Amino acid sequence: MKPTISPSILNSDIGDLRGQLRLISGADVAHVDVMDNHFVPNLTWGLPVVEACVRADVLPVDAHLMIEDPDRWAPAYAEAGCASVTFHAEAAAAPIRLAREIRRLGARAGLGLRPATDIAPYAGLLGEFDMILVMTVEPGFGGQRFLEPMLEKVRRTRAAISASGLQISVQVDGGVSRETIERAAEAGADNFVAGSAVFRAEDAAAEVDALRALAGRHCH
Ligand SMILES: O=C(CO)[C@@H](O)[C@H](O)COP(=O)(O)O
Ligand SMILES: [Co+2]
């Protein structure tokens, strides 16, 4: 699979949302983190800001919902025009029904896994999803250190997908940088969320290109 780079706008200057999205227009997708201060101990924004990202029409929008009760809230993000909507396995009451609803509304469905959540119980559900998100930090904040033990989970996730014969993306999110992206790609990830690595770089566009090139050495 060709590597795709999804900068997270979590730590960008969102007072200038459109400008920040233009800065990363050479990326593949804009990753937008929705946090509700319940599922994670942090609060960001909700549907209006995500709609503004979609309306800016710079990049497809990947909504990462770190919220309780995604069964209730996630469909609205698909209706808003997000290219993909990821909800967390730990929070969903009816993940299959929710994934089908997201797809019916025209978005790709993603299943997010906290570091402590294994892929094995969800292996039978892979066909319901377009993307599996392996969190490589504890969700809630940008700028954290990449959790190396998650590489093993990325490997097992990719192996389960290969065994199923399906074409499903493996996304890694958290601490992805020039230092870590190659190991994540080698383990089987093909979609890379990078927040601080991109927005703290002097040249965000060049950083996106550099990350893509490094991942491309390992993605097939
Ligand atoms: O979902 C999250 C955090 O919970 C991420 O999308 C972060 O925003 C990524 O930021 P960096 O770790 O790349 O700084
Ligand atoms: Co995220």
Automatic annotation (TrEMBL):
The keyword Metal-binding applies. It catalyses: D-ribulose 5-phosphate = D-xylulose 5-phosphate. InterPro entries: Aldolase_TIM, Ribul_P_3_epim, Ribul_P_3_epim-like, RibuloseP-bd_barrel. Its EC number is 5.1.3.1. The keyword Isomerase applies. It comes from the Bacteria. Substrate binds at S8, H64, G140, F141, G142, G143, D173, G174, G175, G195, S196. HAMAP family: RPE (MF_02227). Catalyzes the reversible epimerization of D-ribulose 5-phosphate to D-xylulose 5-phosphate. This is Ribulose-phosphate 3-epimerase. The lineage of its organism: Bacteria, Bacillati, Actinomycetota, Actinomycetes, Actinomycetales.
